[in-house]
Amino acid sequence: MGKMAWCAAVLCGLPVGLVLSIPAHANGDQIGDYVADHGGDVCALIKDQPNLVGVKLAVSHILATSGLPADQTGRLLAGSVRADCPEDGALVDEFVWYEKRRQQSNTGVGATLGN
């Protein structure tokens, strides 16, 4: 399973709305450090394309830059959004809902999101 597919599976395993309610980080931990260093970049990707493609780009950026296991991507995304662009929380929830539905129907994300 590729990193993006694994990340989507992890994110989709969570109830919609839970991604942003996950405790994001504490001072001095790896997630907090990542959010401090990259949270603005993650939010900039979402702001540049304020749609599902932007969130997908943000998730790809997290996978490429965090160095943490893919199962931490939800916490990194949640921490970044909560710290730097809380107004985009609903869009992240929509992305999680979309990925969950896509996995259930087993259709390809490539045709829709330009993978």
TrEMBL record:
Q: Could you say which residues form the signal peptide? A: 1-26
- Give the source's domain of life in one word: Bacteria
Protein name (record): DUF732 domain-containing protein
Q: Keyword annotations for this protein?
A: Signal
Quick check: keyword Signal in the entry? yes
Q: Which organism is it from?
A: Mycolicibacter nonchromogenicus
Query: Key word Signal present in the record?
Result: yes
